[in-house]
Amino acid sequence: MFLPFVLCLVPFLFAAGLLVTPVASRSWASFALYGVCLGVTCLLLAVGVLGLAAAGEGAPPQLMRLPLGLPGAGVGFRLDSLSAFFLIVVNFAASAASLFAIGYGRHEHAPGRVLPFYPVFLAGMNLVVVANDAYSFLFSWELMSVASWFLVIAHHRERENRRAGYVYLIMAAISTQALLITFGLLSDFGRVLDFEAIRTSPHAVDIARLAVLAAVIGTGAKAGLVPLHVWLPLAHPAAPSHVSGLMSGIMTKVAIYGLVRIVFDLLGPPEWTWGAGILFLGGITAVVGVLYALMQHDLKRLLAYHTVENIGIIAIGLGLALAFRANGFALGAALALTAALFHVLNHSLFKSLLFFGAGAVLTATGERDLERLGGLIRGMPVTAFCFLVGSAAISALPPLNGFVSEWLALQAILISPELPQWILKFLVPMVGAGLALSAALAAACFVKAFGIAFLGRARTVAAERAVETDRTSQAAMLILVAACVLAGLFPGMVVDALAPVVTMLVGSHLPVQSSNPWLTLVASTPERSSYNGLVLMVFIALSALLPALGIYGLASRKLRRAGAWDCGYPETSSATQYTAASFAQPIRRVFASVVFSASEQIDMPLPGDARPARLTLGMKDPVWTVLYRPLVETVNAAAAVVGRARTLSIRQHLSLVYAVLILLLVVLALWQ
Amino acid sequence: MIQYLLLQGFQMMLVLAVAPLLIGIVRKVKSRLLCRIGPSVFQPYRDLIRLARKDVVVAHNASWLFLVTPYIVFSAIWVAAALVPTYALGLIFSWSADIIVIVGLLALARFFQALAGLDVGTAFGGIGTSREMMIASLAEPAMLMIVFTLSLLAQSTQLSSIAHYMMTVDVGLRVSCGLALLGLVMVAIAENGRIPVDNPATHLELTMVHEAMILEYSGRHLALIELAAALKLTLYLSMLVCVFLPWGMALNGAGTLTLVIGVGVYLSKMAAGGTALALLEVTVAKMRVFRVVDFLNFALMLGLLAALLLFVSRSI
Questions:
Q1: Which residue range(s) make up the domain with B130?
Q2: Per the structure, how many domains does chain B have?
Q3: Chain B residues with CB inside 8 Å of A590's CB?
Q4: Diameter of chain A measured on Cα atoms
Q5: Tens digit of pLDDT for each residue in B227-240?
Q6: What is the pLDDT of residues A332-368, one digit of tens each?
Q7: Theoretical Cys-Cys bridge with A532: which of A190, A330, A404, B96, CB 3.0 to 4.6 Å?
């Protein structure tokens, strides 16, 4: 009933992209385009909400087949609870991004390179989550990749962006290639492309294992699982900020959708080893992602690395859910999957919010480098407030939404000693420690990001003169702030909304939360654990009110402004403040000396020597040095060998072709 | 209903009233151990009143965040402290937050405190904030691993249930328990900035952490922050005694006499805890700041080991 609406609305996005192309440089074009996108995504959001509500009442999945695509086969679409949930995730953030872009897009200096691709990108993501056969899935996936690639290289004159586009293109190709292999294996080598048929047909153990491996590579390369994350911190910041928000906030979630759809839905009953593998990758990703982020002083790149960390947290939830499900612990699987999906929603909210904040800062100051910002809270109070809420939410602080999903994930870890496999018994507590470590480091990272950019004294004239961003951008950020707060105060409603999705995937769901007294969130039983964000918020508000009243009634209310105290030696130059690099120095010394083999070289001139002192910082990215550089070198060496074939004579060429032909025939003969 | 609310309210007021006294006891015992007479145990109350009566002096460029932070820090820590069972178990709001939430509330307070340290833009604020976050990035996971251990033992993350489990079930000498106790003591020392991690008595030393962060505060703001720090110490000590020495606490629905005994036992436990802390502080020397990392890594390893032991020893 709702699926046709999705399929009717998506062509509007394509049409908008097409129609805006000739007029993209007009001043009204960006306003009109983002207005249309806002309208369409709002409608798609409504369809998602209605679809999820219908699924909650037990409506069966809706199927549709359109005579497009491959001749004779057509393309299939399906709207079930999982698709509906991801429609909500995609379109809520997309509508916020469109609203933000109505104001923000005016500052774009190359609108012709952004406007046509933006709606196509949105359309691609919407189509991925409703696709119901391998062909339409891969087609939409590629549409999403290509459109986002154009957006990444929109500002192609900067050398860094061209490199980002290049790396992104390679990783996107690897991702699609791996997914192609996955579907090849699942579809019995291309015989059945339809997801309905794949779902019902049995899969051999080895084939299923290979398919999971390929699916983790394919979707992990898009989502940013370590070590496939290398493109992400390059590409996401290169795009205009609202697109960065979309790429980090929801394109990575669409990749997670792909993983969930393939591993939980299409493959049938899982093995515990799949869970262990994903859990392990998730744990590594969460810790390494946040460490990378701490070492950054480019605001947008820091946020992009943080996406890697959050993908790790989601992967931990998914891996645990698989392990529980393989062992037949339905409630544990439901808890872990709820935690993962809740985090999917949360991350789409606060990461979009933070990227919009970074975009607002970029417009106001022209700077992304933290070392050249500072004191923005005075010039940009609204943006600062929104960024603060986003930072607190992503640092998993109660009573905001990030804490709830973290709490659910920890609860899932706490019931996992029941798992019988020894590897899991060692792995799960390690991953738990990694999760705790990444949460603590995330808080440190966002103290750095917010503290250096928005607090303190302005480090440059541009930061000093920053003014608040426009009203529509503020509105978009405030809507996301409200969503973060509401999801944190009423987590039970989100958990209840997730129940049909979780039931469809693991056959069980958490206890119904709406019947709990005082809207408390209960993970399994009230004796085990419960959390109530609302009561906590009321308590905090009341206990803050008491000293406030006490002070206004009894104590001194006077407030005097004076120079900073600073132990009696205030320094007027803003260069004496802590910078992002100096803030991260203790953590760099503790962690990065191990992970990134960070080294400091201090060159301190002797007294009387007039040359400046120097501190040189060396850091190596282990993923590049251990994995990618040898890989690239091997590929280059192989290419050099093959390249020699170009200079062969025609006779040698022909004999080469002949030899290959013989070889293939022999292989075929042996195969039969 | 009313009486349950009263019991909960009493607990909130109890921790608030006890917190400065605990600081006073620690200082007094320390002074006596160093052969000084030392100020009265009630001196912290007088200090707080004196601070509250003074004008607040704020730097010209301090933002609104600097002004609201004392209230946020104080209320978050007070709520967290009031959620730890002190004299009775199963109070009416104990279900609204489990031990993970208490860790979260402390993280919330620290987050804002750290931001306020960066707000004025002085070098001292930066150094304190940066080091505080470094210490927290190790102390918080260590704390969570200890939480894991306790929750796995008691099959619950509610502090009330954990204390009840420790009280009623014969736990015996369990290795995990011992590791968790040692780890929790180490985390408590680090989180409260006590010797050997930080020195609360000075702020003119290169190793200072907490005191550097709050350097720009004065008057009532400083009073709130000092009170919050005292509450945090009370919280950790209450948590230690409620988990590892739960005896004498009133159970759910106990009579008035039991409650009064519970309060008395709690107060004497806190006095004993404060004395022990003072003893520890005079016997060890302050560490260099990067030695703290080893100290906390040790706590983290203890927590991880304790949790791992429980994971592998669980029979199916």
A1: 2-313
A2: 1
A3: 134, 137-138, 290, 293
A4: 102
A5: 999 999 999 999 99
A6: 999 999 999 999 999 999 999 999 999 999 999 999 9
A7: B96
